[in-house]
Write a structure and sequence with these properties.
alpha+beta, OB fold (Dihydrolipoamide Acetyltransferase, E2P), five-stranded mixed barrel, 3 helices, 7 strands, about 30% strand
């Protein structure tokens, strides 16, 4: 094999290895990517079916039920609600009428089955996506009340 042929072979093997590494990194990134949806977006069918995602909003007052380590509660954006089931220990800061983000997937029955629950870390914090969704829901409600005589 000539020097030119050997050089071409080395470059070709290098390009193939680089492409393989990039493909593996992108695949790992894709499998760890989790999108955020509000209860309104879930009700509109924007959330993926059979795939993990996060739902965020406020824990609805009076919706929290405990049975041993199983917890049921409702996440709301003050426009739509999503029923959530979680098995495990809830964070210490988890309370009704406070911000929450739950990660999991929608069950066949339309109930969100959470694998992780994250509570706000201080009284002023809310995830930016959840805050934006709550603000948009409030604006839509205000616009509807102005239109209705």
């Amino acid at each position: 094999m000539s020097k030119r042929g050997k050089r071409f072979l080395v470059i070709a093997v290098g390009v193939v290895l680089l492409a393989l590494i990039v493909a593996l990194v992108l695949n790992a990134f894709k499998s760890n990517l989790v999108f955020f949806f509000t209860p309104t977006q879930i009700a509109q069918g924007q959330a993926p079916k059979g795939q993990a995602f996060r739902v965020g909003g406020m824990v609805k007052e009076g919706s929290l039920k405990h049975v041993d380590l199983s917890h049921e509660f409702v996440v709301t954006d003050n426009e739509r609600d999503v029923q959530v089931i979680y098995k495990g220990l809830l964070p210490d800061l988890f309370k009704e009428a406070k911000g929450v983000v739950a990660q999991g997937a929608m069950g066949e029955d339309g109930v969100f089955v959470a694998t992780q629950v994250l509570a706000k870390h201080d009284e002023n914090y809310m995830p930016p996506e959840a805050k934006a969704a709550m603000d948009q829901a409030a604006l839509r409600r205000a616009a509807q009340s102005v239109k209705a005589p």
